[in-house]
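During the no-cost extension, the postdoctoral fellow (Dr. R.K.) reprocessed legacy sequence entries with the updated structure-token encoder. One reprocessed record is reproduced below for audit purposes.
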Amino acid sequence: MSSVAERRSDLDNDKPITRVLFCGPHFPASQDYTREYLEKYPFIQVDDLAFKEVPDHIGNYHLCVVKNMRLHANVISRAKQMKLIMQYGVGVEGVDIDAATKHGIKVARIPGDVTGNAASCAEMAIYLMLGLLKKQNEMQISVKQKKLGVPVGETLLGKTVFIMGFGNIGIDLAKRLKPFGVKIIATKRSWASNMQVPVSKVPSQNGDIDDLVDKKGSHGDIYEFASNADIVACCLSLNKGTVGIVNKSFISSMKKGALLVNIARGGLLDYEAVLHHLESGHLGGLGIDVAWTEPFDPDDPVLKFKNVIITPHVAGVTEHSYRTMAKVVGDVALQLHAGNPLEEIEFVN
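Re-encoded structure tokens follow.
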């Protein structure tokens, strides 16, 4: 990164250059694919910095892709040239939006239905469901022990799946679950009458939500729905109202032996509650792509259970979605450089 640091210093007064900052080392394909997309445009500079370096250098950049860094007010106040803070995806809960607004900086996300991110996350949810039902970890043990015909798994057929949060990911999950012969129940803050499935730029079927969901409910119904489900899939966004929503009371309301899958945000789950119900045997299995702390601690006690599957926050990390999001970030950088309206993104302030 030393050459990058030198370039940053040299470019401080180079007005024709539009500078794009990617925060932190994780999800490296995001900056790599964006650089590839923009390689023919020398007037766009793409850098990635370690978390600890961001506060000292953020003032040199016009566009910031936050990834999993938390951008607090004191860091945002240093971003004197910043025009836009955006996410390489949908979650902007790590950005102090009020502080950004105060400093005249727009904050935006990339809608998941445009990039295929929602479809990728929905596929991961099904992967985790099937992995738990078929007892993936125990199968690996059987292979190593040269055993055949064990373990005895289960099928999705006939199961009731509770999709908690019916946005783009929830909708794409319902579309893909239907052919498995499941009953789908779902909660959403508010349901529009005759709500239509959004038309996506990725291949999908369209129609009424009523064709996908067997029973609809609101936030106040989550305990009742949990008690009727064989599998609970968390597809909620993370905010003040949803932090720790899957707590001891919620998991206690689930059927004994039911499975819990989370491909949204780790903060939705209360760690102690999950650990307690795994230890008691009430929770039949846990499949998560997001965790309470990231990167995940490989020595975490949760990993001692055979009925736990953890993946390293890769639900949306697919060739299709990441190439598409790189194009969006690249196009936004070009629009910003040209002084044109910013398209293909969704502003939150």
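The radius of gyration is 22 Å. The first helix runs from residue 2 to 11. The remaining legacy entries will be reprocessed before the final report is submitted.
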